[in-house]
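testing teh design pipeline on a random one, pls ignore if ur not involved
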């Protein structure tokens, strides 16, 4: 018998205009109109926008002032952190019970490896039924694509949104990508797109035909990666989703202390350290834990679930509240720690509702300084007076 070429079955599911869809579940009067979720002031930033608003050129991370200039009839809502996180968890629970391997790529998108399931009842039938199940149980529209790798499934999902579905047959990966504009390719941002267009490259087909050596000489290692992607090649695995992974940082003091100002400053320093790591890993956290060890070695922790976030301000507020509930002023403190868990892949955009364009740029600037000179290169003024040996 002839050998059948082995290939994976990878599905990518993406909730359509997730924040917008949740807002419309809460208020049906918002259906069918241009809708923007984000900061309420002119200095605010767009966190999400409906397809009706996108038709006017509005997009996420755009200054609210510009968005309203492009689409003056848009309705704006501040956004509901708790509801978005709640629905994200509900959808995750639904999908995780149905698939063998799930990767939660962000708050609203998921990869699943269905390889081998086609032997039983067909991956196409399964994904179609799963799409219907999510919408039936949550009321949220969701799109998906089924392909042989993560790259093709993601690109194809974006092409069929909103509320669409498609299947790219094995062997058709390169021909599927060929006619698409280069900007459709994940990993091609504004700068790379500009350089490629200066080279006369406008479609993925042309990109796939550029000699590998030329791509490497012009773009380095990323050029090699882009060349492989343009040819439909992507061997990256679906990484199993786990809520157990965490990022933590703790400090044992040289001398036990009840200096409240120093303890608060240390909390700030530890929190900024772990949130910096969080953003570098392009993740959001959904749970925060504060740990205290007293001079008698008794150790206590308190934790709280939060809407998925990577914001210093959001996380620090919760850390301070947990510390307040933990701290017993009658006892000396030996150790203090902060842990972020329930991690999912995602970007800082989830926190744009209450932030301005200036504050987002400040985050980026501080992170760039820390990345270049180390995480102790810059920190808040409240943490600057730390003088114990480990912090100098």
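output:
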């Amino acid at each position: 018998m002839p050998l059948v070429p082995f290939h994976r079955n990878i599905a990518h599911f993406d909730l359509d205009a997730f924040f917008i869809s949740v807002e419309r579940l809460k208020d049906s009067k918002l259906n069918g109109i241009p809708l923007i979720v984000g900061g309420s002031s002119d200095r605010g930033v767009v966190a999400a926008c409906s397809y009706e608003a996108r038709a006017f050129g509005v997009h996420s991370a755009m200054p609210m002032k510009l968005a309203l200039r492009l689409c003056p009839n848009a309705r704006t809502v501040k956004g509901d952190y708790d509801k978005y996180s709640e629905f994200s968890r509900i959808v995750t629970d639904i999908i995780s019970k149905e698939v063998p391997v799930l990767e939660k790529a962000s708050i609203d998108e998921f990869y699943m490896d269905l390889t081998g399931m086609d032997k039983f009842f067909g991956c196409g039938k399964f994904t179609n039924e799963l799409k219907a199940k999510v919408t039936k149980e949550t009321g949220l529209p969701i799109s998906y694509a089924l392909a042989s790798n993560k790259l093709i499934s993601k690109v194809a999902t974006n092409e069929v949104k909103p509320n669409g579905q498609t299947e790219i047959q094995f062997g058709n990966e390169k021909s599927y990508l060929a006619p698409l504009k280069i900007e459709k390719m994940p990993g091609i941002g504004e700068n790379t797109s500009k350089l490629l267009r200066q080279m006369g490259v406008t479609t993925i087909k042309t990109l796939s035909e550029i000699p590998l050596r030329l791509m490497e000489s012009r773009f380095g290692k990323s050029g090699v990666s882009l060349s492989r992607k343009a040819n439909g090649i992507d061997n990256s695995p679906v990484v199993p989703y786990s809520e157990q992974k965490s990022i933590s940082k703790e400090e044992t003091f040289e001398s036990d202390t009840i200096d409240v100002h120093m303890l608060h400053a240390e909390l700030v320093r530890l929190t900024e350290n772990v949130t910096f790591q969080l953003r570098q890993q392009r993740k959001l956290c959904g749970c925060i834990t504060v740990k205290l060890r007293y001079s008698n070695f008794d150790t206590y922790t308190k934790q709280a679930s939060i809407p998925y976030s990577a914001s210093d301000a959001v996380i620090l507020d919760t850390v301070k509240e947990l510390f307040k509930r933990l701290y017993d002023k009658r006892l000396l403190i030996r150790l203090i720690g902060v842990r972020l868990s329930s991690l999912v892949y995602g970007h800082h955009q989830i926190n744009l509702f209450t932030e301005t364009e200036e504050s987002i740029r400040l985050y980026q600037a501080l992170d760039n300084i820390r990345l270049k000179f180390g995480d102790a290169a810059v920190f808040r003024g409240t943490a600057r007076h730390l003088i114990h040996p480990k912090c100098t």
